[in-house]
Amino acid sequence: MSETVVVKLGGTTIADQAPVLAEVAALARRRPVILVHGGGKRLTEWLERMGVVSQFRGGLRVTDAASLEVAAAVLRGVINSELVSGLRALGVDAVGLSGVDGGLLIAERVEDLGFVARVVGLRRDLLDALMVAGQVPVVAPLARDEDGIVCNVNADDVAAGIAAGIGARQLILMTDVDGVRDAAGRKLDTLTAAEAELLITSGTIAGGMVAKVRAALGALAWEGTEAIIADGTLPGAVSRALDDPTFGTRLTVGRSARASSVGAS
Questions:
Q1: pTM (two decimals)
Q2: 192-199 contacts at long range (C-beta below 8 A, 24 or more positions apart)
Q3: Is 265 a domain residue?
Q4: Residue 253 within a domain
Q5: What is the total count of domains within the chain?
Q6: Are 109 and 152 spatial neighbours (Cβ–Cβ below 8 Å)?
Q7: Which of 118, 222, 229, 231 is the most exposed place for a label (fewest CB within 10 A)?
């Protein structure tokens, strides 16, 4: 099992990401790190400027041809470059790429979402070469589908696919909520794959959290791996996600669900 940590960040402005980016830089000096980023909010803003209304189904963005061009420009261009530059300013030898580069991600088209794909495999040679050289890959969520067409990919799915593909012990999915909550509104500190599926079936886990939890479950390749869904806007989010068992929600293969002692807020 690899000690590499896969961290997924959102795609807000670099100023908003500065604290957590500094934490990623500090972590990269101790352990191998792969950084995956999204960009949903920034992409929506760019599309709105062009008069394009964003549509979502099951928490995933519907992407037509026009939206895909903007997505590629914003994700691989604007956001990826900002994060690479930010990490390099912190002394980290970061390298930007997407799932298209080197055929990194193997993906297949998702039905009824337009130019959207899901990760089904990983060609890890490029990542291995970068990490052996002491570099931090910063991955934008784009990939070629089975027909060779570049598609938008949910960033949580990209992070989980990379984590499973390299055998990472830990995946951190940063979001703007404190974790997964049960039917009573209590944050769950831990959650097994089976328990998560029950919460999805019952509708307790709903909306965009469904896609996030399903992505996290995809990273649980074997016993001992964990995926952590945590609030990346809080101070010390990365270190707390790794070290504090009550911070966020830890999804595992076989550990029973445990609600936080802190009630719903």
A1: 0.92
A2: 192/251, 192/252, 192/253, 192/254, 192/255, 192/256, 192/257, 193/217, 193/220, 193/251, 193/252, 193/253, 195/256, 195/257, 196/251
A3: no
A4: yes
A5: 1
A6: no
A7: 222
